[in-house]
Protein: Cyclin dependent kinase 2 associated protein 1
Organism: Rhinopithecus roxellana
Amino acid sequence: TYRRLLSDYGPPSLGYTRGAGKSQVPQSKYAELLAIIEELGKEIRPTYAGSESAVERLKRGVMHAGGLVRECLAETERNARS
């Protein structure tokens, strides 16, 4: 499983409110995406070493990250239209 990060490492425009008070991307989704990317990095070396379980975790993590990217983009587009 992937843990959530509570802090924001990205640019303020991606996690904080500005202007009219709406955030472009929800802080929790962005933080969760960062946590998944961090965890994926830890699976690279075991994958090269031939670990089948690391390969499966990497595949699941990439699919999960892709879904979060789509959610973040959709939220950004919705907020841009409003």
Notes: Residues 27-81 form one domain. The beta strands are 17-18, 22-23. The radius of gyration is 15 Å.
